[in-house]
Amino acid sequence: MSFIKINLEFTRNAKPEFSDLVDALSHYIPYLIGSIIYSIAVGIGFMLLVVPGVYIAIRYGFFSYFIIDRGEGVKDSFESSSFITRDAMKDLFVLGLILLGVNAVGLILCYISIGVVTTILINKTVGAFISFAGLLITVPIAVLAIAYVFRRLTAKRTRTAPRPS
């Protein structure tokens, strides 16, 4: 939650402060409930066939951003996420594929450069751990990209039409 809040602050060109971390925790219960609902819905969607799971994941993927950034409740956050993603499903799908690829490349490159050497010289456990170090670079970039897209989608929707109530 705090990681999302910090990235949202970066997208505002604001300097994140310690109080932002504490502020994000005030939304813990709605975030937890929303995460459980989202995980179950996406899981069921993937069990039905992969396509419904991907659709649900994209359509409602910004619910947590609305909870953390705007303090919305669980139901409103899902409605808001559905509203802003309505016309951007293809673009968000492509973005997801790109970010998946970036994270995979980070993992592979780190494994090749560090993991193999460490596995040979030290042991397999340390090598596997260091292999994931590439994700320490690519995952923050991916989350920042998603926060930026959230800002763009909410700004676009605010300008084009009022949110249905």
What features would you describe in this structure?
Helix 1 (2-11) crosses helix 2, helix 3 (28-48) packs antiparallel against helix 5 (63-70) and helix 7 runs antiparallel to helix 8. Helices cover 82% and strands 0% of the residues. The chain has one domain (2-160). It has 165 residues and is an all-alpha fold. The chain contains 9 helices and no strands.
Describe the SSE topology.
Elements: H1 2-11, H2 18-25, H3 28-48, H4 50-59, H5 63-70, H6 74-85, H7 89-121, H8 124-131, H9 135-160
Helix pairs in contact: 1-2, 1-9, 3-4, 3-5, 3-6, 5-6, 7-8, 7-9
- What's the order of the H and E elements? HHHHHHHHH
Poorly predicted regions are none
Continuous helix count: 9
Question: What fraction of residues sit in β-strands?
Answer: under 5%
Helix content: over 70%
Radius of gyration: 18 Å
**Mean pLDDT across all amino acids:** 81
Q: What is the general shape?
A: globular
**Secondary structure: number of strands:** 0
- Tally of individual domains: 1
Tell me about the biggest sheet?
Answer: none
- Class computed from helices, strands and strand pairing: mainly alpha
How far apart are the termini?
26 Å
